[in-house]
Write a structure and sequence with these properties.
Layout (H helix, E strand, L loop, with lengths): L1 H6 L2 H23 L23 E7 L3 H12 L7 E7 L6 H11 L6 E5 L9 H14 L7 E5 L3 E2 L4 H12 L3 E7 L5 H17 L2 H4 L13 E5 H6 L12 H10 L4 E11 L6 H9 L2 H4 L4 H28 L2 H24 L10 H20 L4 E3 L2 E3 L4
Parallel strand pairs: 1-2, 1-4, 2-3, 6-8
Antiparallel strand pairs: 4-7, 5-8, 6-7, 9-10
Amino acid sequence: MMQGLIGGWPMVNVTLGLTILAGLIWLGLLTLWGQFWRADQRLDPNQPPPALWPRVTVVIPARNEAPLIGTALRSHFTQTYPGDLSIVLVDDQSTDGTAAIAQSTVASLGHSEKLTLLSGAPLPVGWAGKLWALDQGFRHLQQQPNPPDYVLFTDADIEHGVATLQQLVTQAETNQLDLVSLMVQLRCQSFWERLLIPAFVFFFQMLYPFPWVNQPEKSTAAAAGGCALIRFSALERIDGLRAIKDALIDDCALGAVVKAGGSIWLGLSTTTHSLRPYPDLRSIWNMITRSAYTQLNYSPGLLVGTILGMGLTYLVSPLGVMLGLLWGQMLLVLVGLGGWLLMAVAYWPTVQLYRGNWLWTLALPLIAVLYTLMTVDSARRHWQGQGGAWKGRVYSDMG
C-alpha cells in the first residue's frame, strides 16, 4: 500500500530522494572528509622536550582591551616555559587606558623589563587593523640585534593555560613546524553561547579539516589567530604580514602563506580560553556577519550555493521526518531519522569538547538555519557598504 502511494505521489518521491541524498552526504562527510568531526587534534603534553628551549616573544595587538588585558598578561607571565620569554604589546590607538593597565599589571608581577609597549601608528589604507598591529610588532623585532626564534601571535582577550607555550614550542621543535596554532576554547556560558559557539567550532573544522591541515602533502591550510606560534625565519620568508595585509579572515590566510613554504599544525585546546563574552544573539550575530560573506569571496553565486547546500545538508533530514509523519510514510521517517542521527553523531565530539548535553546535537538543523541567516545578513551588509565592522572600524572594501 505504501509503495503504491509513493509511486502515485511525486512530492513524496522527490522528498524521499532528497532525504536519501542528505543522508548520503552525512555518510560521506563522516567517512571521507578528513575525519574533521572527531575533534581530536590536540597537543601531546607528554612529548619529550627539546634539548634547548628557543627564545620566544609574544606579540599582542590591543585596541580598547582594558577589561581583559590584565588577565591575558598574567597568563603569559605565569607560564611554565623554561626558555626566554618576552612580550611586545602593540597598543592600537586605544582610548580606554589599555596601555596603562598593561604596564601596571606587569609591574605588579615584577616583570616590567620583559614588556615592550609600542604605540601603534595610524592604520594605512589597505590594511586590516589587527594585521597592521601584528606587523608593527614583527618589524620592531626584526630591527633588534638578536630577534627571537619564535613569535607567538595572540589576542588581548586570551587566557593561556600555564603549559601552553611549552607544549606549542615542543610541538614545533619536535616536528620541524613553521606554524603551530590552537583553536582556543571560546566562552560558552550563556544560552546563546551554548547553542551557537560549539557549532562555530564545528563548522570551522568542516571547512578546514584539521587532520588535512596537519598533513604536509595536503593543500588544506588554516590557522587560529588567537594562538599562533610561528618560527621567526618563516615570518621573514613571507615578509611579515604584508602578503595578507587586507585579509579579514587573517588566521586562515596566514596558514596558507606559511604552508606554501613549510609545515603547519592546527589543533584544539581545552586549557587556553577566550575571555570575550557573547552573552546574547546579537553579539554572536555581529561576530559571524563580520566575515561570513568574506569566506564566500563576496560571490553572489557562492552565496546562493551555500544557502541551497545548507538546506540540503541540515534541513532535509528533519523535514523528512516531519513530512513522513504527516503523510504516514514510515520509510521517509526512517530515512530522515538516519540522516539526522548521522548529523548528531558528527556533532557530538565538538559538543563534548564544550561539555554540552547530547540533546544539543539534535538542535544542529536549527543552528544551521541561524548561521545561514547570518551569512545572508553578512552579504546584505557588504552590499550596503557596512562591511566587516570591528572596534569602530569598517572594512567594506577588503576581501
